[in-house]
Specification:
By secondary structure, this protein is an all-alpha fold. The protein has one domain. Helix content is 77%, strand content 0%. It is built from 21 helices and no strands. The protein is globular and about 75 Å long. The chain starts with a helix and ends with a helix.
Length: 437
């Protein structure tokens, strides 16, 4: 059987199992079992597949996943992150679109403490949307920023999804985590500037209102108390990786311990909150490890049958420039994002795209960051963008069409930033190069 027939069969089985209603993880396992039986020698192939699956989750490099998840869950369920957002609210005074800017700044702060895009969006929606609605903010400047900044948790460490992508695509996890920081802050900065400019051009979008007059001490003390200590955790986690003082696993352990200590110091670490955080951490970790098993064994079958090699040779033999191939792969991700969740997209495309990227000589870390950027954008693309439904649940009075229109300019901005990073790889790579010995 030729490689393209193997590839068509495996992908066809995968899509068929998903169409039957199987969760994506079990759809992958089913396709892997059938593929191993057909292409790897029947029972012997299946037993080898089981051994490969067990080995795929025994890597020490995967330990940051539960630790990063625990770090975010503790911050979320103890309410410490919510207090940090309230402190950011006091810092931002009389500027156009004030509450929208609070959403961008607060969402960026929370993203540096939690790797969960859903938790980020849900917290901002619950905290700020009711007040925005009461103040007469137009949905385009109220909902859009919250959805846009919600996806930053996928980029800024601690990002469990970045660790997952690094594991599945065999990208150095520490470098991928560090390389995502600058693009995330560029994105947040451009969002911030867009809101200020748009609200200056059309003040009716975000009606001005009287903000309680606070002294500099009253504005700064909450930030000193709630923001600076939490941001110091982020600095220690990231700085220890860049400085070579700690591995990603060790820095994740440091961040998780510091998060628990911070919650306890603020008097927010109740037994009930900690149990919920642990339960959610276990649930998400087990799901993630199953995902890694399914995706890595899928890529091994592709390698064994020469399907990934054949695809790479087909692409390189087409005579297209690496940039056009790169844009084509990112375009495929963007289209898939309209209909699939990010984990499913990653599991399907990473085993196919990474051999092509390596054959073309594309930097793996740079390509991984671009993939994360497009995955982040696809959280907000209709009709099935996950964060659209999170925002809709928080603001049921706003029609879904209005929510989609509100996020469209931010999607366009994010795509522009992807183009900038594609044109200037050094923007992405200069920070991880500091890690070089």
């Amino acid at each position: 059987m030729d490689w393209y027939e193997v590839l068509a069969l495996l992908l066809g089985m995968l899509l068929a199992f998903m169409a039957l209603g199987l969760p994506v993880v079990f759809a992958f396992f089913a396709a892997n079992l059938v593929g191993a039986w057909i292409f790897m020698g029947g029972e012997i192939g299946v037993m080898q597949l089981v051994r490969n699956a067990a080995e795929s989750v025994q890597s020490f490099a995967l330990l940051p996943i539960p630790l990063f998840i625990l770090m975010g869950e503790v911050m979320f369920h103890t309410g410490v992150a919510g207090r940090a957002i309230d402190a950011v609210d006091k810092l931002i005074a009389r500027v156009p679109g004030r509450l929208s800017l609070v959403a961008i700044a607060g969402g960026t702060v929370f993203s540096s403490l939690s790797g969960s895009t859903i938790a980020n969006t849900a917290m901002l929606s619950a905290t700020l949307l009711p007040e925005m609605t009461r103040r007469g903010y137009h949905p385009s400047i109220a909902v859009g920023p919250i959805i846009a900044v919600g996806g930053l948790a996928m980029l800024i460490p601690p990002s469990a999804l970045a660790v997952l992508l690094g594991s599945v695509a065999r990208i150095p996890i520490g470098e991928l985590l560090i390389a995502s920081i600058v693009p995330a802050f560029i994105l947040a900065g451009v969002f911030f500037a867009y809101i200020v400019l748009r609200c200056r051009l059309d003040p009716s979008l975000a009606p001005a209102y009287e903000v309680a007059r606070l002294s500099w001490r009253e504005r700064l003390m909450p930030a000193v108390k709630y923001v600076l200590p939490l941001m110091s955790i982020f600095v220690v986690v990231v700085g220890s990786i860049i400085g070579g003082v700690a591995t990603p696993t060790e820095s994740a352990a440091l961040g998780a311990a510091a998060s628990v200590a911070a919650a306890a110091a603020y008097g927010r670490l109740t037994g009930a909150a900690f149990r919920v955080a642990l339960r959610e951490t276990l649930r998400l970790t087990v799901m993630t490890l199953f995902i890694i098993c399914g995706s890595i064994t899928f890529s091994q079958i592709l390698a064994f049958t020469q399907a990934s090699t054949g695809l790479s040779e087909l692409v390189t033999g087409a005579g297209l420039s690496p940039m056009w191939v790169l844009l084509g792969m990112l375009g495929i991700l963007l289209v898939l994002g309209c209909f699939m969740d990010q984990v499913s997209m990653m599991m399907i495309t990473a085993p196919l795209f990474m051999p092509v990227a390596e054959t073309l000589g594309l930097d793996a870390v740079w390509f991984g960051v671009l993939m994360l950027m497009v995955l982040e954008i696809s959280l907000a693309t209709p009709p099935f963008g996950l964060l659209l439904f999170v925002a809709k649940g928080a603001a049921p009075q706003i029609p879904m069409a209005a929510i989609i229109r509100s996020v469209a300019p931010f999607i366009a901005i994010a795509l522009g930033v992807v183009g900038l990073l594609a044109a200037f790889p050094q923007l992405t790579l200069w920070l991880p190069r500091l890690m070089a010995p």
